[in-house]
UniProtKB/TrEMBL annotation:
Gene3D superfamilies associated with the record: alpha/beta hydrolase
Keywords: Hydrolase
One Gene Ontology term, aspect cellular component: membrane
Protein's UniProt keywords contain Hydrolase: yes
Domain AB hydrolase-1: 75-329
One Pfam assignment: Abhydrolase_1
Active-site residues per Swiss-Prot or TrEMBL entry: S152, D296, H323
Protein source organism: Arenibacter echinorum
Single biological process term from Gene Ontology: proteolysis
Protein name: Proline iminopeptidase
Molecular function (Gene Ontology), one example: peptidase activity
Homology family: Belongs to the peptidase S33 family.
NCBIfam families named in the record: pro_imino_pep_2
Keyword Hydrolase in record: yes
Amino acid sequence: MKTIHLYALISILLLNSCAEKQSSESDSVNTSTYLDYSKSDDQFTGGIKMIPITTPKGTFKVWTKRVGNNPKMKVLLLHGGPGGTHEFFECFDGYLPKEEIEYIYYDQLDSYYSDKPNDSTLWTTEHFVEEVEQVRKALNLNKDNFYLMGQSWGGILAMEYALQYQNNLKGLIISNMMASIPEYEKYAAEVLGPQLPPEVYKEIKNMEANNDFENPKYSELVTEYYYTEHFLRMPMDQWPESINRAMGHLNPNIYVFMQGYSEFGVTGNASLKGWDVSKRLKSITVPTLVIGATHDTMDPKYMEWMSKELPKGQFLLCPNGSHLSQYDDQKTYFNGLIKFIKDVDNSVMK
């Protein structure tokens, strides 16, 4: 009987020990505060803040949404367009939370989730740079934690911001954007256009020459032959829902005013015509990652050159990607992006 009691006692002690160990391991796993919003003023809204932006035409609000908490790595995302939305970045949800990198979605003024004054005097790079700066201050981003990432038009905005306010930055990411609109137009005319079937390219150029952009045939040809090769390399019926939603929410007024109608360059008097900061890249001294893709609407060789002009530049090529390489070459894109953010953080901490 004593032996039986002894075995029972040992079993109880072992069970208690295992339970304590599991509890300890569970506590260790749950110590991360990445998803803890309990001490944040935006817990009520799930991370969303409508940030007031002061402009010469009045005060308007822009939409932001924070995902996660990380005091050292905070990435503000600048969407493309102009007039696009944060929805182009929604696949970031599948990668950055696991790495505990904080990121902030943001719709620029006159984009879908933000106020829409619809005032073209505000559709300038100067306005948008100051808008980003006001967002930065409102979100308490600074040189110890602030990574600025822009894609396409957002890449233009990110470069312009860095040229004026790089002392506020910890790191910069320029995704799928060249530093020169004339060089982009040259690449489209000399390389991408001639890759289309000759009869298709001829018909597109004829409609452009006649300003026949409202012709349904123009959109049909560009979508079928250009978008699925150089914008997002998937059959359109397989495009992610977030991309279809983003395309549906695009503000055509601001897009046409700044970019024009064509996908082969900036047309008419669109305000981005002639934009070029290629000679100023050397003055951006913060660590910078330039992301390009083999099938991009932007010249990958030019983007590699950009990375070499930047004093602390790096280049990431997505070999299977196009303009939205965060979707069509996703593993390459996010592996490189995450490594850059963490490498910068580690080098700053040393």
